[in-house]
Amino acid sequence: EGQFERINNTVGPSVPSAPGETLCAAVSASTWVEPHAKCTVAFALAWTSPKVKFKKGKTYY
């Protein structure tokens, strides 16, 4: 359906992951667009690029 459901949206800001723990993330937005209309949704993202190692030995930065 093009959306993500939060399990608990009252927990506040996220916390850092534990050492050695690998996490993923996603960004989504909901909006209503009338037929033949347009809608713009802007996102601003910032992140670091840690080295991620997978079980099969592949490393990504």
Automatic annotation (TrEMBL):
<dbReference type="InterPro" id="IPR024462">
    <property type="entry name" value="GH116_N"/>
</dbReference>
<dbReference type="InterPro" id="IPR052566">
    <property type="entry name" value="Non-lysos_glucosylceramidase"/>
</dbReference>
<dbReference type="Pfam" id="PF12215">
    <property type="entry name" value="Glyco_hydr_116N"/>
</dbReference>
<protein>
    <recommendedName>
        <fullName>Glycosyl-hydrolase family 116 N-terminal domain-containing protein</fullName>
    </recommendedName>
</protein>
<feature type="domain" description="Glycosyl-hydrolase family 116 N-terminal">
    <location>
        <begin position="9"/>
        <end position="61"/>
    </location>
</feature>
<dbReference type="GO" id="GO:0008422">
    <property type="term" value="F:beta-glucosidase activity"/>
</dbReference>
